[in-house]
Amino acid sequence: MTELDCSLYLVTGRALLPPDKDYFESLEQSLQGGVTVVQIREKDVDTAEFYDIALRSKQLCDKYKVPLIVNDRVDIALAVQASGVHVGQTDMPVPIAQIEQAIQDGADYVGIGAVWATTTKNLSKPIVGVRGVGEMLQKLDGTSIKSVAIGGIKSSNLLRTLHGSVSSTNHALDGIAVVSEIMASPHPREAAAGLYELISAFRHSNSISNALSVRSRYSAEFVIDGVVDLMNIVRERSPLIHQITNNVVIAQSANATIALGASPIMATTAQEMEDLSKISGSLLINIGTLVTSAYEGMMLAGTFANAHRTPIVFDPVGVGASEFRRSSVKNLLNTWQASVIKGNAAELAALVGSNEVESKGVDSLGSGFKDPVSFVRDLARKERCVVVLTGKTDYVSDGASVAVLSNGHGLLGNITGSGCMAGSCIASFCAAAVAQEGADPKEPKLVPGDVFLAAIGGILALTISAEMAAMRDDVKGPGTFLPALIDELSLLSAQCIRDRSRLQIVSR
Ligand SMILES: Cc1ncc(COP(=O)(O)OP(=O)(O)O)c(N)n1
Ligand SMILES: Cc1ncsc1CCOP(=O)(O)O
């Protein structure tokens, strides 16, 4: 078979056509929209009808110079001179469901899925999620076999699908396959063109630094200027920060958000997540006192946030403390893509299954990671988001650069919820990054704006305010420190950030 362009792979499904839409008209319009491969998939027709459909489809595909593949039926593929045949685990004679088997059998491509839930096909196996796709892609390293993800892919989750379906060796998909998103559309040309545009835009930006941040290299001066700009935007625009957080810190996190200049909404109920997703500038998800009802809200809120390209700041508080937290965090991260993951050393160690750092409940014990710079950078690459490691020194990485931040005060460790307030501050800065002029909404990143700068900004705002609070005469200890910290967040000036930031950038 000649080399396939798998970018936008249409698998047909005539049962999904809108009422009165002719199949061949729909197919031709989808070809005009930019479909690059077509697979005829007919499960309930006899051989004669299958042959007729395949033959006319082949003529249309030839007109647009697009290869035609036939699902299951080698005889029909041969009869219509199709470019290939698609066979699955249960089909004869070439089983391709197992990737290793596909490699051994010399397949030209593999379809990996179902990546998301779908009603188009009765699935015999659980969905694999984007992380599962990433793991399978790694098996294709060193081969020339192409790969497409399939199952539940829509324009609303396409960027999430492409962004997340990458192996830790940086093996990305060659394309995506869809049935309903095109076949069920009354406007297949526009549906296909919209998908194609997103795919090609993503391709042009698919390097780890481009995917996460706007620059591949940062200087300390650039970062501080950027942080000051973002803080000004928080104050000018007062973005709405939706926070699903733990009930120990709700009031102080809301107050910290207001003090910084943003506007908090603390809401956990699943029923209101769709409405809130339309008006929020960013979403904070903190699992500190996780209960099943809040978990359902988190699942939905994150899914809507991804669809609206709204940044998600994820705080997996105490993730190592219980199996419930571990499995919930795994499911949440398999369902939506965070823009920032923030945690202390024990939480981030638990997230990767490392026992390098011990924990006690939600606290980290001992001296932390031996090489925190490499740890945050590698985790950012693996999770394909910005990672913030909090502690005496804070580390922020986008997978390329690492910011080492040495501001703060010991009193932050003597009050509950200082890490949670850091999450609120980061979420406020993230909302500003999206709102910032110059943040190109068409850029094929998961969210527009510079999330790396935003995460640094949130940490600097809290830690510098803590230093200012600790210096005050009226602060006698942790009890008076907390209200002073809220005061100082509201008083924090651009000059204070410039004067006090202790920041070093380590690149690659
Ligand atoms: C591109 C692509 N990927 C996967 C499938 C599913 O194939 P299979 O497991 O053989 O299932 P059926 O399509 O035969 O139900 C596909 N068709 N296309
Ligand atoms: C054929 C197939 N194989 C795995 S999922 C699937 C159906 C995908 O359809 P949709 O794009 O409508 O979810």
TrEMBL record:
<dbReference type="InterPro" id="IPR022998">
    <property type="entry name" value="ThiamineP_synth_TenI"/>
</dbReference>
<comment type="pathway">
    <text>Cofactor biosynthesis; thiamine diphosphate biosynthesis; thiamine phosphate from 4-amino-2-methyl-5-diphosphomethylpyrimidine and 4-methyl-5-(2-phosphoethyl)-thiazole: step 1/1.</text>
</comment>
<dbReference type="InterPro" id="IPR000417">
    <property type="entry name" value="Hyethyz_kinase"/>
</dbReference>
<dbReference type="InterPro" id="IPR013785">
    <property type="entry name" value="Aldolase_TIM"/>
</dbReference>
<dbReference type="GO" id="GO:0009229">
    <property type="term" value="P:thiamine diphosphate biosynthetic process"/>
</dbReference>
<dbReference type="Pfam" id="PF02110">
    <property type="entry name" value="HK"/>
</dbReference>
<dbReference type="GO" id="GO:0009228">
    <property type="term" value="P:thiamine biosynthetic process"/>
</dbReference>
<dbReference type="InterPro" id="IPR029056">
    <property type="entry name" value="Ribokinase-like"/>
</dbReference>
<dbReference type="GO" id="GO:0004417">
    <property type="term" value="F:hydroxyethylthiazole kinase activity"/>
</dbReference>
<dbReference type="Pfam" id="PF02581">
    <property type="entry name" value="TMP-TENI"/>
</dbReference>
<protein>
    <recommendedName>
        <fullName>Thiamine phosphate synthase/TenI domain-containing protein</fullName>
    </recommendedName>
</protein>
<keyword id="KW-0067">ATP-binding</keyword>
<dbReference type="InterPro" id="IPR036206">
    <property type="entry name" value="ThiamineP_synth_sf"/>
</dbReference>
<dbReference type="GO" id="GO:0000287">
    <property type="term" value="F:magnesium ion binding"/>
</dbReference>
<keyword id="KW-0479">Metal-binding</keyword>
<dbReference type="GO" id="GO:0005737">
    <property type="term" value="C:cytoplasm"/>
</dbReference>
<keyword id="KW-0418">Kinase</keyword>
<keyword id="KW-0808">Transferase</keyword>
<dbReference type="InterPro" id="IPR034291">
    <property type="entry name" value="TMP_synthase"/>
</dbReference>
<feature type="domain" description="Thiamine phosphate synthase/TenI">
    <location>
        <begin position="8"/>
        <end position="97"/>
    </location>
</feature>
<keyword id="KW-0460">Magnesium</keyword>
<dbReference type="GO" id="GO:0004789">
    <property type="term" value="F:thiamine-phosphate diphosphorylase activity"/>
</dbReference>
<keyword id="KW-0547">Nucleotide-binding</keyword>
<dbReference type="GO" id="GO:0005524">
    <property type="term" value="F:ATP binding"/>
</dbReference>
<keyword id="KW-0784">Thiamine biosynthesis</keyword>
<comment type="pathway">
    <text>Cofactor biosynthesis; thiamine diphosphate biosynthesis; 4-methyl-5-(2-phosphoethyl)-thiazole from 5-(2-hydroxyethyl)-4-methylthiazole: step 1/1.</text>
</comment>
